[in-house]
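Long-time lurker. I teach an intro course on protein structure, and each term I like to show students one example going from raw sequence to a predicted 3D structure in token notation. This year I'd like something fresh instead of my usual example. Would anyone be willing to generate the tokens for the chain below so I can use it in lecture? Attribution to the forum is fine with me.
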Amino acid sequence: MQFFIEIVISGIFSGLMYALVALGFVLIFKASGVFNFAQGAMVYCAALAVVGLIDFGLPMWLAVIGSFLFMVLIAISTEKFVLSKLVNQPPITLFMATIGLSFFLDGFAPIIFGTDVRPIELGIVDEPILSIMDSTGIGISKFDLTASGVIILLVVVLALLFQYTKIGRALRAVADDHQAALSLGIPLKNIWTIVWCIAGFVALIAGLLWGSRNGVQFALSLTALKALPVLILGGFTSVPGAIVGGIIIGVSEKLAEIYIPPVLQDFFGGNFGGIESWFSYVFALMFLLFRPEGLFGEKHIDRV
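-- Reply from a regular --
Happy to contribute to a lecture. Here you go:
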């Protein structure tokens, strides 16, 4: 039973890390109605900026601030040179634009900050909390616990921002209809710039946490793919849904990795290792058959 609990706890922490990446997708989708394929590249870009500025001799806190300013510059440039040219265009057009932005960031950031794999030292030791281990026998990592607290706090702040602030209401209006939002006097350019800055901040937090655990490398750009099942389960428009979807995906893939391979080997023989890398996608595909809009997504009805 203790082993099962440890697997579930590990899955929850992994799921929260996935949810952090998914948050960036949710933010952009809520403001523009388009899937931002460049979110993974933004995570890589932000983390690379931090380690690059540290290599230039800046202290950690100043490197983080500098990285955020770099992400703000990217947000402003994205609005000015990409989004402002595509107002009221079909979502597929905006989606293709984010694909181009993703390739640009993947190539542009390493030119400035280098391509070497480097760690980010946050000062949080990835070791079990002894007091919890002594009392329950269950090992909980200090890093996982701290990262989870940061992620949950960020989700609460973003949920309140979207639900109870003037900016949040404007973001939802822009997502529903660009032209209608403009006719109501909502400054579309400013709103898009703000939401991309927020998404850049979320990417920075994700880059710091993922970079601290796995090192800053190009693979961070591919973490976006892990967020897809999370979005399918939680819904593309729900900030809390990203957390719930992330926890479900994280726990299910950890349990599947431990308990499914022995069953498959008994029936078919052979080696069924590595199930964790693809199980979440199969799980999300099955979920789509029953609830395409996700657990917290809004049902879309077209009247013809």
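Some talking points for your students: The two ends are 54 Å apart (CA to CA). Residues 2-223 form one domain.
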